[in-house]
């Protein structure tokens, strides 16, 4: 056997995993996995072990449309944060905006890019303002796949039922209906634009099952589907330089209304020269993604650096209700070792291909494809309550995800070929995941809910749309794998098309105002809230006191 990439302290446990592997392989080949839990048992383990079912770490919202809701502390703090903008200071600047556009899209990830393409098709001028570079986004990082019911024995009906069950029956049915019905069209659209999906030798789509699915409907591109989709959407947008203007390193810090209460634009903050930019727009689409970088309950995260929930803050200040935000999605399989990769996603595809989670003794303890929230809770139970986790030299704890099973089931070379990116990421640290398992623990992954929208991405503010992870309802309380990449395309496209129509119809705009911000500040004062932080956060601050002490100012 080749040299192990793990330290001596983990070798005893690794030997036990090797010992039990051949027996587990025999069972896996016969599709005999650890028993699934019943719906009643789901509820029991979720309430006992899922981080978001515990009452601790929560704070009541005291202002806004969701006043009274008990949300995660980190989320409540940004929703009740101190704005960057002092309304009076902008009186003059609102009268002479720096930029005029028909449709302003805030966020240059997947949803924003899909929206930009559909909006520009209608002949309006489009501006995309994004926090970092175009494509620096969670979309770029997606690994496993995108769902669409397009095989003969599948149908949007089954897709709907799977997602509804996975969401604990709390999904908005109209949104879910739009999601599953548009899905085959979205796959065709992406393929026409140039997305290279994995194919069978006869040219048909290669499709796999995922957690919570009753049919094979996961379309993939090795384990880099997000990078492939983002590559194509970004190219398409950037090819339309005459129609779509891109402002990079320009996060939105506040939205603007006009005097009638219709959307009016946004104030951006240029991270390069630290100047504010006032943009007047006939329609605005929020596509800012999720809040994974808030590290809820102190968990590690899979998310990109700019995922700080900004869109939630901007929309909430305008009075848009939030939904399905009680439970965040913790992905069951985040890397625990090596330390540099802590929190990094290990795609669900690894389990889809047959790798099982096993404890420090090499024993199975859960079905490998329970819904994500349940699987996470079971891993936490194994480590915390049963003490069957594996402790790393830095004190992190996790269980093994037995990836060598994949080559043993599907043939030598499968891991390297099908999980190419994960293979290389671990190889860099001397771990060959086709020979040795990965150490994993749940990691903060996805926002589940967000701003309320209808099936066209419209919010309650005329002319303001939201699409993608910033919005809520389509996935209910728990998203299934592959439905978010679908969501961003379905609702990005819908919002883009509708926003363009709205902009075309809107002939004249009244004066821009920040009145909603004045009211929000008043509400904070009335509720005696002293904001803990400035929000939107824009970028998370990882400096410790020692580092800060050495810095200017
Ligand atoms: C590691 C990983 C793997 C995943 N794998 C899958 C998968 O296999 N299948 C699946 O369906 N889903 C997957 N997901 C989820 C999915 O990728 C995301 O939910 C989805 O891509 C979000 O798209 P979005 O356009 O809404 O947000 P993003 O792609 O995150 O884009 C949001 C953009 O808005 C920008 N932004 C943020 N705040 C502001 C602001 N104030 N002003 C301007 N711009 C701003 C951000 O910088 C970013 O560019 C995965 C997620 C991660 C993190």
Automatic annotation (TrEMBL):
Residues 102-485 form the FAD-dependent oxidoreductase 2 FAD-binding domain. It comes from the Bacteria. Gene3D superfamilies: FAD/NAD(P)-binding domain, Succinate dehydrogenase/fumarate reductase flavoprotein, catalytic domain. Keywords: Flavoprotein, Oxidoreductase. The active site is at residue 381. Its cofactor is FAD. One of its GO terms (molecular function) is oxidoreductase activity. InterPro entries: FAD-dep_OxRdtase_2_FAD-bd (IPR003953), FAD/NAD-bd_sf (IPR036188), SdhA/FrdA/AprA (IPR030664), Succ_DH/fumarate_Rdtase_cat_sf (IPR027477). This is Succinate dehydrogenase/fumarate reductase, flavoprotein subunit (Subunit A). It comes from Desulfofervidus auxilii.
């Amino acid at each position: 056997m080749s040299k192990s990439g793990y330290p001596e302290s983990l070798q005893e446990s690794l030997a036990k995993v090797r010992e039990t592997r051949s027996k587990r392989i025999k069972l896996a080949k016969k599709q005999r996995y650890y028993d699934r839990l019943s719906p009643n048992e789901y509820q029991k383990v979720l309430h006992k072990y899922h981080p978001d079912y515990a009452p601790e770490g929560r704070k009541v919202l005291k202002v806004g449309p969701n006043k009274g809701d008990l949300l995660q502390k980190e989320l409540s703090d940004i929703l009740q944060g101190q704005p960057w903008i002092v309304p009076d200071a902008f009186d003059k600047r609102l009268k002479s905006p720096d930029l005029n556009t028909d449709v302003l899209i805030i966020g240059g990830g997947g949803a924003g890019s899909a929206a930009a393409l559909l909006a520009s098709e209608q002949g309006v001028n489009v501006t995309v303002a994004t926090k970092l570079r175009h494509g620096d986004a969670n979309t770029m990082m997606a690994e496993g796949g995108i769902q669409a019911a397009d095989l003969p024995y599948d149908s949007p009906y089954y897709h709907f039922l799977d997602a509804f069950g996975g969401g604990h029956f709390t999904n908005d049915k109209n949104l879910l209906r739009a999601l599953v019905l548009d899905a085959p069209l979205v796959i065709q659209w992406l393929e026409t634009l140039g997305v290279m999906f994995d194919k069978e030798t006869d040219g048909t789509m290669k499709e796999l099952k995922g957690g919570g699915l009753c049919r094979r409907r996961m379309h993939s591109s090795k384990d880099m589907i997000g990078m492939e989709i983002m590559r194509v959407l970004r190219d398409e947008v950037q090819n339309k330089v005459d129609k779509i203007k891109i402002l990079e390193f320009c996060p939105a810090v506040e939205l603007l209304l006009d005097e009638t209460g219709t959307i009016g634009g946004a104030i951006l903050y240029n991270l390069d020269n630290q100047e504010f930019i006032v943009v007047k727009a006939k329609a605005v689409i929020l596509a800012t993604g999720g809040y994974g970088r808030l590290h809820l309950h102190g968990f590690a995260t899979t998310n990109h650096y700019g995922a700080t929930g900004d869109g939630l803050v901007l929309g909430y200040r305008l009075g848009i209700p939030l939904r399905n935000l009680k439970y965040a999605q913790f992905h069951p399989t985040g890397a625990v070792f090596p330390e540099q990769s802590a929190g990094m996603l290990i795609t669900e595809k690894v389990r889809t291909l047959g790798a099982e989670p096993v404890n420090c003794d090499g024993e199975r303890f859960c079905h490998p494809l329970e819904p994500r929230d349940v699987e996470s809770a079971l891993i936490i139970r194994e480590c915390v309550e049963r003490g069957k986790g594996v402790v790393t030299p830095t004190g992190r704890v996790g269980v093994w995800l037995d990836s060598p099973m994949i080559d043993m089931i599907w043939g030598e070379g499968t891991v390297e070929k099908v999980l190419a990116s994960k293979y290389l990421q671990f190889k860099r640290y001397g771990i060959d995941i086709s020979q040795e398992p990965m150490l994993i623990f749940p990691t903060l992954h996805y926002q589940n809910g967000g701003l309320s929208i209808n099936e066209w991405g419209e919010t309650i503010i005329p002319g303001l749309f939201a699409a993608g992870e910033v919005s809520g309802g389509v996935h209910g309380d728990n998203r299934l794998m592959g439905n978010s990449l679908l969501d961003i395309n379905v609702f990005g496209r819908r919002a883009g098309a509708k926003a363009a129509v709205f902009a075309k119809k809107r002939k004249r705009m009244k004066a821009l105002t920040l009145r909603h911000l004045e009211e929000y500040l008043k509400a904070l004062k009335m509720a005696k809230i002293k904001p803990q932080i400035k929000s939107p956060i824009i970028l998370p601050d990882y400096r410790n006191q020692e580092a800060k002490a050495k810095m200017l100012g």
